[in-house]
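Troubleshooting log. The previous structure file for this entry was overwritten by mistake, so regenerating from the original sequence record. Sequence copied from the archived sheet and checked twice against the printout by T.R.
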Amino acid sequence: MSDTLAEIGQRLERLKSKTFENSISASAHTSCVEEDNSSSSPTSVDSSSSPTSVDSFDNSNSDREEEMAGNNDDNRALEDYAQLVIPNSPSCILLPTEARNYDLKSSHLHMLPSFYGLPNEDPLAHIKEFYNVVSGLPLQGVSEANLRMRDFSLYIER
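Regenerated output below.
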């Protein structure tokens, strides 16, 4: 175990020294390019015509920043996900005209079971109970299937 830790430490030291050497060579190269640009001799090299490793590094950083700005959803805070997003689309349950005119009394609404999605609740048992309650409601010129569609949206909203 201690051998592997020592080996990992040595690798880290090598990587740090390589990174430090690369940053020193890049800064030295940048200072040389700046000196060439500041001289007024006609033999100076224009750095804008030949890309350097520092320029490509800066370009890759700006590309990453643009990519990060484009992926705004990936960087959203957990707090942002907790906020409810309500779509403007209508309900997906389309009721026939006879179900729209059905008068649902508050006593019938209180008979509907409540499902909270807790781990100890069985969703199939709740749906079975919902079917039993709806079959006991009075059918006032409405089929039982249409009545279920009408009441199910209320069952979910509770």
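Residues 2-38 form the longest helix (37 residues). Archived copy saved in two places this time.
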